[in-house]
Amino acid sequence: MDLNGKAKELLEAGDVKVVLGFEPGTAGVRRPAFVRKAGRTGRLVFDAACTQNLASYVTRKEVKRLGKVALVARPTTLRALLQLMAERQIQEQDILPLALDAAGQVVELPTAQAIEEHLALESSEIPARDRELLDRLGRMTRQERWDFWQGELSRCVKCYACRNSCPMCYCEHCTMDCNRPQWVPVPSHGLGNLEYHMVRSMHLAGRCVQCGDCGRACPVGIPIHLLTFNAEETVHAQFGQRAGASAKLDYALSTFRPDDKETFIR
Amino acid sequence: MADLYQLSAASLDALFTALQGDGRRILAPTDRDGRSELNPVHSAGEVAQDYIQTSLSAKETVFPKVEQLLSYDLAPGRVELAGATPRAEPTVVFGIRPCEAGGFQALDAVFNWDSRDAFFNARMANLAVIGIGCTRKDDACFCTSVGGGPGDTKGSDILLTPNPGGYLAEVLTDKGRAIQALAPELFAPAEAAGKAALLVDVPAAFDQPALTAGLPALFDGPLWDEQALRCIGCGACAFVCPTCVCFDIQEEADKQSGRRLRSWDSCGSSQFTLHASGHNPRATQGARWRQRVYHKFSYYPDRYGQLGCVGCGKCTRACPVDMNLKEHLVEASQATVEP
Q1: One domain, residues A109 and A138
Q2: With an 8 Å Cβ cutoff, is B266 touching chain A?
Q3: Is A191 in CB contact (< 8 Å) with chain B?
Q4: How far lies A229's CA from each of A161, A198, A218, A223, B255, in Å?
Q5: Interface contact A62-B238, CB threshold 8 A
Q6: Contact status, residue B202 vs residue B137, Cβ threshold 8 Å
Q7: Which residue of A has its CA nearest to B266?
Q8: Residue B338, pLDDT score
Q9: Spatial distance between the Cα atoms of B106 and B242, rounded to a whole number of angstroms
Q10: Are B303 and B215 in contact, with CB atoms under 8 Å apart?
């Protein structure tokens, strides 16, 4: 079944209250669309231009209030949903992911197990261009890398588009917004920008589902996703875990095992 | 009435040299990975050729993203207070669009409303604007719906309109005449004919006076929550906006010394109106989105007799989720006429 047909069927049956998918926006871009009436599903599209990770909406209180959501999902959206389940932010009955199978047909993935099985069919490789940029950064000396990020981060205006577009940045009260005590300087000066992005990439290490939405969201074009991509790759290399691989995942950086191979932790 | 001249394309370098010879910094759109941003340039060849708008706006030249207002040191029994001197280098902003040039007036309305802001005024006094009229547009543009236009002269000291020989130059203000006087030989007298034909046509998208008149009645309607569902509440729209003027005051201090900073803020942020009590009068994204629209199209006209929007469309281009302002205003306009 195609997406429009499936969305119509779900809304008519009352199985979900809203279908969250994509519609054509300004100059051919694809943007999020909240469809709540069966008669309005015709505007939904799902093609290669639909890049946004819509999982960032399912933890928003304005969206939770709408009722059960059917979510049009790309592979990284599904990873985000599993990671959100692992972090106990959503439950499988709250969300009905809609994904495309190999034949281009819409499939419902009503359980975490169904998502995991569907994802196993998909490659989890990051885009070639990002791989190339990461490799380039990896080949730099520490000083060159520092200079690169100093240059990039000096252009940051701290609009928090990267944070707010991230499906894993769901904290209702972000550390950046704490003012008693104030951990990180608010203004967008060198220190404020550096601390913000360092804290963000550390918080995303082992949790980043590598959708790249933070980089796409940046209004001044900083490739900020490379920081969290790199942290994710590092955690994978050290601990063998991928964020969003399973709905039952112990977070690598906060899990203790008595049989840990490192002696200092015992 | 503006003085009209012809400026050849080849003479821009000589103009830039004359401006720098006068001790002025030149900021102009330059290319960066397919985006355009305002940067210092030294020759005309560095200026981007193919741009509609820069990503950020020229407001940062007079209202930077962060600036120090004062600093202090604590000594036993006394406080040493030091005012900050605004860095206000003589600057020419070259090549911004008429919409953006018009934006300085909306900033001025706030920075010189009840008290006169020394930092803003020092920079404005040292700023001259050489705008370039628009021969291209995109789907985000709507200057003509908010009182502007692709050849609007408001806010520019000199406005250039591209023509086959280079540029038609309108010298509009004393600051513009001072620039002309640096290299008068570059400005050849020209006829006042045919400017409109050189510019792109931007049809009006909505009736702004009717929208402004209708907004108060729409305040409690469902439209704003509906429009804001996909808004993620970041500050990209506010920070790229040439007229968004909200700022935050931050104190960075330890036991011995401190400094007070002013930085950009955004009404789209959930913390913008959060009270110390925990109460938030704009508790939902819908309420915050409504504030953004009303501030620009209802409160600004009410308070300052002008709009808080110039129709440049930067917010639309910057928005990660395509909150298209023009489209939302058209929708609001339609709602004002429906019973």
Answers
A1: no
A2: yes
A3: no
A4: 17, 13, 16, 10, 39
A5: no
A6: yes
A7: A159
A8: 65
A9: 9
A10: no
Residue of B nearest to A60 (CA): B232
- The angle at the Cα of B61, spanning B55 to B64, to the nearest 5 degrees, equals 85
Range of the domain at B253: 3-337
CA-to-CA distance for B310 and B149, rounded, in angstroms?
A: 9
Question: By percentage, how much of chain B surpasses pLDDT 90?
Answer: 91
Between B225, B250, B266, which is nearest A186 by CB?
A: B250
Average pLDDT over residues A70-82: 96
Q: Please tell me if residue B39 touches chain A, with a CB cutoff of 8 Å.
A: no
CB contact under 8 A, A219 and B236: yes
Average pLDDT (B67-78) is 94
Indicate if A137 and A106 belong to the same structural domain. no
Same domain flag for A116 and A138: no
Domain that residue A189 falls in: 128-241
**Total domains in the fold of chain A:** 2
With cut-offs at 50, 70 and 90, classify the pLDDT of residue A122: confident
Q: What span, in angstroms and rounded, lies between the C-alpha atoms of B32 and A221?
A: 9
Verify whether the Cβ–Cβ distance B284 to A62 is below 8 Å. Answer: yes
Model confidence band, residue A230 (pLDDT cutoffs 50, 70, 90): very high
Taking the Cβ of residue A177 and every Cβ of chain B, the question of whether any pair is shorter than 8 Å is answered with yes
> What's the pLDDT band for A185 if we cut at 50, 70, 90?
very high
> Which of B55, B138, B248 comes nearest A220 by C-beta?
B55
A14 and A114 part of one domain: yes
Q: What pLDDT score was predicted for residue A253?
A: 83
A59 Cβ under 8 Å from any chain B Cβ: no
- Give one DSSP letter per residue of A64-123, joined into a string: HTT--EEEE--HHHHHHHHHHHHTTSS-GGGEEEEEE-TTS-EEE--SHHHHHHHHHTS-
B136 CB within 8 Å of a chain A CB: no
Whether A106 and A139 map to the same domain: the answer is no
pLDDT at A120: 87
Q: CB-based contact (8 Å) between B56 and chain A?
A: yes
Per the structure, the count of domains in chain B is 1
The minimum CA-CA distance between B158 and chain A, rounded to whole Å, is 28
Mean pLDDT of B84-100: 95
* Count of other CB atoms within 10 angstroms of residue A173: 9
CA separation, residue A3 to residues A73, A103, B229 (Å): 11, 13, 21
Query: How many CB atoms neighbour CB B191 within 10 A?
Result: 8
pLDDT of the residue at A245: 92
Give the pLDDT score at A172. Answer: 87
pLDDT tops 90 at residue B18: yes
Q: Does A25 touch chain B (CB under 8 A)?
A: yes
Give the range among A16-20, A117-121, A189-193, B259-263 with minimum mean pLDDT. Answer: A117-121
pLDDT digits (tens, 9 = 90+) for B182-217: 999 999 999 877 899 999 999 999 999 999 999 999
**Domain finish residue from A65, A92, A120:** A120
